[in-house]
Amino acid sequence: MFVESETVELKREYTKDIIKEIIAFLNTKGGYIYVGIGDNGEVIGVSEIDKVMNQLSGSIHDSIRPDANVFINIKILDSDIICIKVKEGSVKPYYIQGKGLRSEGVYVRLGSASVPSSEVGIKQMIIASTNVSFELMPCSQQNLVFSTAKKVFEENHLTLDDSDYRTLNIVDENNRYTTIGMLMSDQCEHTIKVAVFGDENEFDFIDRQEFRGSVFTVLKDTLQYLELNNHLHSEIIEYQRIEHKDYSKEIIREGLLNAMIHRDYSYSGSILISVYRNRIEVTSLGGLVYGLSINDIGAGISQSRNPGLANVFYRLKYIEAYGTGIRKICSEYKELDLTKLVQITDNTFKLILWNKNYAEKTNVKKRVIVREEQSSYNGDNLEDIKILKLFNEVSTISRSDVQNELEVGQTKAGLLLSSLLHKGILIREGKGKRTVYRVREE
How far apart are CA 286 and CA 264, in angstroms? Predict the structure, then answer.
């Protein structure tokens, strides 16, 4: 009995569209096409089978690029059925002559159907077949400025001049800016989006921020915002006051750097960070590098998707050595199985950092402690205190009020206000330019 599947396609009769099915198998994992069998598996047979065999051979030769004859075998089975065996090709993507490397010319197998490939899918096949990392490919934007990157390098006593551009692969052999160059530039098009929620699920939304600019700016601003949402808790153990934060600052940093270094920049989407009461989830695009499994990650094996970007971060001493980030995170949560820290799909990699203070609250009976709950708030730091003093004169304040009082920029003022929102000290009213903040009444 013949049944269609991911690797089996049934055709009642020969048509020119059969080329799409062959290309789909070449671009995926290979498969079999049976001509002369109905969709329900009924054996019909092919009339004028010699003529059809000639048409099929000619169509394969004339319509598929690059040449794929070595991966295709055609034979006649009993009952005048034609079987086309297609192996996975080695120089993907294969496409229809005349259509080119566009979605209407490139097909892949999805379940029991052959569908047009996405532009991202085509790009990934090109990268895989040429063995050239996407980070080394020329970027679409060539008018780039590196003011932020140069400042960061100067602060770390490093140079960033024309000779360094080639050494760091910021430009290619034709002096075109690469993806690495785009990421380091002020015009970097990839962002990080952070959302803060009030409970353990995506329902009680408190605040969100999107950070853009050079990877150095995005890294700094995102870490600063996450630290503002990394709350300090205190407890008394045997009459001694002990303070500790929800998350180790180093672990948050390692998690963010891991996402930035290993994400697939051929995707245009953002790194997503969700902050809940009990955890932080960091989701990056791209899944695992081909050939690696979650068991390999657990064993400490690391293969960077962007070794050039990793090298830049290594030079700046943002990372100590390649592949140590996940190991540090696993060591921090050694009581948890790796599956509780990492969730992987074909195209995403999610890292989960657990709030240790929240875990202690849920297991408070296991420890003999007296916990101090923060029922009132007088300010964790001088900046918070200055903001709260503004309410001595007025009932509401705006972000510009904070900028003027603290003499800080728009981003910094927004981060400080967002932190006070998350702590439950302030509430936000209005939208856009009319947004104001008020002290939450007890």
Answer: 5
Q: Are 270 and 281 in contact (CB under 8 A)?
A: no
Nearest residue to 372 (alpha-carbon basis) of 179, 205, 234: 234
The amino acid present at 140, given as its one-letter code, is S
Structure tokens at 411: 């981003």
User: Could you tell me which of 94, 88, 90, 14 has the C-alpha nearest to residue 54?
Assistant: 14
Residue 344's alpha-carbon distances to 50, 193, 282, in angstroms, are 49, 19, 12
Q: In one letter, which amino acid is 363?
A: N
For helices 147-155 and 215-228, the axis angle rounded to 10 degrees is: 70
φ and ψ of 359, to 5 deg: -65, -40
* Bond preceding residue 93 cis, omega within 30 of 0: yes
Is residue 148 within 8 Å of 186, Cβ to Cβ?
Answer: yes
240 residue type, one letter: Q
CA distance 94 to 114: 13
Question: Which of 377, 364, 267, 308 has the alpha carbon at shortest distance from 165?
Answer: 308
- Model confidence pLDDT, tens digit, residues 31-56: 999 999 998 889 999 999 999 999 99
Neighbour count for residue 358 (Cβ, 10 Å): 17
Q: Which amino acid is at 68?
A: A
Cα torsion 308, 314, 320, 325: sign: negative
Dump the DSSP string for 388-438: HHGGGT-SEE-HHHHHHHHT--HHHHHHHHHHHHHTTSEEEES-GGG-EEE
pLDDT above 60 (res 95): yes
User: What three-state secondary structure class fits 188?
Assistant: coil
**In angstroms, rounded to a whole number, what is the distance separating the alpha carbons of residues 45 and 37?**
7
Strands 192-197 and 271-275: parallel
Query: Measured between alpha carbons, how far is 255 from 64 in angstroms, rounded to an integer?
Result: 44
Sheet order of strands, 192-197 included:
205-211, 192-197, 271-275, 279-285, 348-354, 342-344
- What is the per-residue pLDDT across 254-285, written as a single tens digit (0 to 9) for each? 999 999 999 989 888 899 999 998 999 999 99
Cβ count within 10 A of residue 408: 15
